[in-house]
Amino acid sequence: MPEIEEVSTPGAAASTGEEEEKLEPGSEADLERFFKKVNCTKDEALTEKHLKWGWKNLDKDDGAALAYVIRNNATCITFDLFVNEIFEAGVLVCAALKDNAKLKSLDLQQGQIGVEGARALAESLRTNVTLMNLKLHYNCLGPEGTKLIADALKVNKKLTNLDLGDNGIGMEGCKALANMLGTNKELARLDVSKNANVQGNDAAKAVLQKAADKRKPTEKYGKFTLIVKDEPGQKWSPEGFHDVVKWC
Fold first, then answer.
1. The pairing of beta strand 133-135 with beta strand 225-227
2. Which residues sit opposite 222 in a β-bridge?
3. What pLDDT was estimated at residue 7?
């Protein structure tokens, strides 16, 4: 659809996009804007079993609408939100999981929800009894956000697969996850690849591996899987990015 040009006539503000910025989050007008953005109807958003909204250019202004869908879609099992940098909107999205009793898989890779998003997610994980697969690769969690999620998983008995790759979890994050693994018996797979201050750090890896080795196979999922791959490329950390130009 061609972009609407700005015109200097009375009432033109409605066509410039300025009105969109002032919409009340979660209002009918805001939801209408959002559903156009993800190219679906309200009915589809609230009834689809698999919402494929990766790479939709969603951002911090879409949090209320995303939360509305999570709370009101009682059918969706798989929700793909990868590569949508929602930043602080992650608080609204993750908090909404408290009110969802159907979703089994959530892909928030590169959502950049940060520590506060992790805090809201942790609170939801303490009570959510359906979510089994959670992908959080590159969400700027750091050790603090990692610990919040790890502590919640001492209570959560449903999540089986967790991806925490490229979150700069560091040694403190590894210790928190190792401590959680001593309590949580349901998590079957943990991926902490490409983490700054873990990649190439044998001591940090050993903390996790020791905890993983103590896990006994379960009848349902078999042997616990720990993935700690050293991978090239930028790796996020609370201190900034660690650049790897070449991997030999």
1. unpaired
2. 218
3. 37
Cβ 78 vs Cβ 105: under 8 Å: yes
Is 19 a residue whose pLDDT tops 70?
no
pLDDT value at residue 244: 66
Does position 3 have pLDDT exceeding 70, yes or no? Answer: no
Dihedrals phi, psi of 191, to nearest 5 degrees: -115, 115
What is the 8-class DSSP label of residue 166? S
Token output for 33: 């804007």
What distances in angstroms separate CA 235 from CA 37, 86, 164, 210, 239, one per listed residue?
30, 19, 12, 24, 11
CA atoms of 39 and 35, how far apart (whole Å): 6
Residue 161, H or E segment: strand 161-163
Domain range annotation of the chain: 13-242
* Cβ-contact 136, 164 below 8 angstroms: yes
For the domain 13-242, what is the CATH code?
Answer: 3.80.10.10
- Helix, strand or coil for residue 121? helix
> Strands 50-52 and 240-242: what pairing?
unpaired
Tell me the whole-structure pTM to 2 decimals.
Answer: 0.90
Residue whose token pair is 């078999």:
222
CA atoms within 13 A on the CB side of 117: 24
Q: Reduced to 3 states, what is the DSSP secondary structure of residue 68?
A: helix
Mean pLDDT throughout 36-57?
A: 98
